[in-house]
Specification:
With 436 residues, the protein is an all-alpha fold. The chain is 71% helix and 1% strand. It has a two-stranded antiparallel sheet with strand order 1-2. A hairpin with a 2-residue loop joins strand 1 and strand 2.
Amino acid sequence: MPMPMFAALALFLLTYAALLLLPKYRAYIALGVAAIFAVTRTMHIEKLFTLDWVDNWNVLLMILGTMGVVALFIESKMPALLADLIIDRMPNVKWATVVLALFAGLISAFVDNVATVLMVAPVAVTVAKKLKISPVNMIISIAISSNLQGAATLVGDTTSILLGAEANMNFNDFFFYQGKPGLFWVCQVGALVSALVLLWVFRKDNQSIHMDEKTKVTDYLPSVLMVGTVVLLIFASFLPENIKDTLPVNGIICVSLFLIGLFRNLITRRGIKSIVQELDGFTLLLLFGLFIIIGGIEEVGIIKKISEIIQNVSGGNVFVIFTILVWLSVALSAVIDNIPYVMTMLPVVTTIAQSLSVDPTVLYFDLVVGATLGGNITPIGASANITGIGILRKEGYEVKAGTFMRISVPFTLSAVITGYIMVWLLFKPAGIPFFG
């Protein structure tokens, strides 16, 4: 018999607290609680093998395949070469920092944020050592910029993949949706505005710069696989809906391309152990557990209850709901992982939109913009930030929260406000007053 709503809510909140307090054990916590939901029939486990779970399998397979292709891409050293070429054309440290951040953002639109930091940060460290300056500003800028662009494409970040599954969005929809500029362009405008902020923050860093030696690319196949992933996802977006509703098409594409690269490494004796080790099984297990948990709390009515509370607080005013969602997302994502948060709130947004009989697009985009960019504020708000701080620690630099936030707060606020305004202007539901 399913557990009562109160018990399910209490267990869900305890799970959330545990995920926050015990980050090293998140996957095991999620799987353990998922098992409780399954045993008590709060979540009917047989749903894993029905069409209801096609979107979830699509998410998991897309992330797995993308992780693998990214690992091959990093190993090929192509991203490092591209960063070298960009830096060599910069007049001084200020411009090198900002353009390197923009470059990291562009990569993270197609590659995991943490992987992006791992690709680009070593170049920044090399530049800093040659100039005998601190790499702190560069690394922080790279980390927060990679977070910003995570929402730009379907494969840019886990939150984007989750959004695509909930809103039934394909790869092209992130560029143009309902005949309007999509999230990709919202992120680009936000990136340009925040780049101006960085130029102001680093206005005194005018040391000249030059790279004597450039990275040598060891293998071009991973670059082909990266481009192939994007191209095939675009083609897949034109497949009939009945195929995409019954098969995890995007996931199959991503995993297939990864397997091609892995097989090539195997037959050419390049080795596959290091690539397999780069696959983040921990995150995949965490997501799998969370999918079951979210399914359980949805079945007992908690998602509907949360949506009713938000509607009551807002008085049913769509603009107020829009505003609450973005700034609540920014505030919470500054201190908690945005993956379980977005996974919880997407069905809440769907329920709110259905009850108000409005197009949910503006609320979907609002949620993802707030949650994705909100993680930039603090050093612990996003995995990319934690990774960047870890790289600096290895180099002997301990970064205080104040130092990080001197850069991250103006950067984040400028990007969020830009996205907040653009999303409302572009996707305000028809028939709704401008502030209603």
